[in-house]
Amino acid sequence: MPEDFIKTQSYEREAEILKVLGHPIRLKIVAGLLSEACNVKKIWECLGLPQATVSQHLALLKNKGIIEGRRSGVEVYYSVISEQARLIIQALFKQAPCK
Predict the structure, then answer these.
(1) What is the DSSP letter of 23?
(2) Which one has a higher pLDDT value, 78 or 13?
(3) C-alpha pair distances (Å), 4 with each of 1, 15, 91
(4) What integer is the mean pLDDT of 12-29?
(5) Within 1-99, where are the H helices?
(6) How far is Cα 29 from Cα 38, in angstroms, rounded to an integer?
(7) What does pTM read for this prediction?
(8) Torsion of CA 83, 89, 95, 99, to 10 degrees
(9) Quick one: DSSP state of residue 66?
(10) How would residue 50 be classed by pLDDT, with cut points 50, 70 and 90?
(11) Domains, the chain
């Protein structure tokens, strides 16, 4: 491996994405959000988890730039914005590319 390659690439962002996606609940959330934007209620109902648990995971995903929330009235709909996370999920589950 060329020494220049190692010096010029930091890998920090990529490692952070892998770390965040390394939790099963967050992995499920991101995989689910690839098919459609969802609000918190739909996510916790689909996962069968308490709303507080889901909200904590959503906050971390949002803070790390993997998802974003879009307000519609009183509800917030989440969707995946990280192309790197999208590609990782697709590779893991061999999904067709999502829009």
Answers:
(1) S
(2) 78
(3) 9, 20, 28
(4) 94
(5) 3-8, 12-21, 24-35, 40-47, 51-63, 83-93
(6) 10
(7) 0.83
(8) -30
(9) S
(10) very high
(11) 10-93 (1.10.10.10)
State whether residue 67 is helix, strand or coil. strand
Radius of gyration of the chain (CA): 15
The mean pLDDT value of the chain amounts to 89
Alpha-carbon distance of 58 to 35, in angstroms, equals: 16
CA dihedral 77, 67, 93, 18 (to 10 degrees): -160
CA 40 to CA 66: how far, in whole Å?
16
Burial of 33 (0-12, 13-18, 19+ CB in 10 A): buried
Both structure tokens of 37: 């934007």
pLDDT, position 6: 65
What does the alpha-carbon distance between residue 34 and residue 90 come to, in Å, rounded to a whole number? 9
